[in-house]
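Why show two proteins at once? Because comparison is the fastest way to build intuition. When a single record is shown, students tend to memorize it. When two are placed side by side, the eye starts asking what differs. So, the first record is below.
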Amino acid sequence: MVPAGRVDGENTAYLWRAGKLINLRTLGGPSSFPTAMNDRGQVVGLSTTKDGRRKAFLWSKGRMRKLPLDDASGINNRGQVAGGRLHGATGFNAARWHKGKVTDLGARAFDRSNTYGINNRGGPSAGRSPPTAPNAARSGASAN
């Protein structure tokens, strides 16, 4: 995997495979950035869409597709993706995607959580931010 670079006027993710540089393209916008790759050559990352939004992507078998996540931080050899989704005006919850299904790993109201990777058993490394509400009583980190 090669970080995003500017080639032929595009800021996109690239993959170096079998002596060839493969442009992973975008989800319709001007840029993409890889965040992780598994042993099967699947890549996850972030890309802009035609309407300018930033969404998570999965690149597999020569095709990039949009995931129902707002962030992707890891992918294991089973194809499970660790990431996160926006909720409400300011919230962000850690989530796992696999075979079309999103599992929200959650955070209580006023918390933010995110993932940082995923192991081959499907357990993400995750953390959550301290509560931002003055009367909330939870802080710390969690990992599954």
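Second record. Ask yourself what differs from the first in the token line.
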Amino acid sequence: MGTSHEILERLRQDPVVPQVQVQALRLELPYDFSVDNYAQILSDTARYIAPELGWSPAAAEPGAPCGHCPARAADTSRPSSITAIA
């Protein structure tokens, strides 16, 4: 739990993370979040956390919707607080 920056810092302190080549990223989230919370977590992870760990989307246009997630009404230009990543 925490901001994108806080989560990224904890991941950087994990001794295993630098040894892993990030080609796929798995998030385990609780089942009781709202759709907006899931969208925020996935967006922040894809835009701010995963790229700092070496991940990049495969042939995706920057900012283009993936087609699987609903569009968010909120501004996504800045990272917000991620409520939980289990």
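One difference worth noting in the second protein: Residues 72-76 have pLDDT under 50 and may be disordered.
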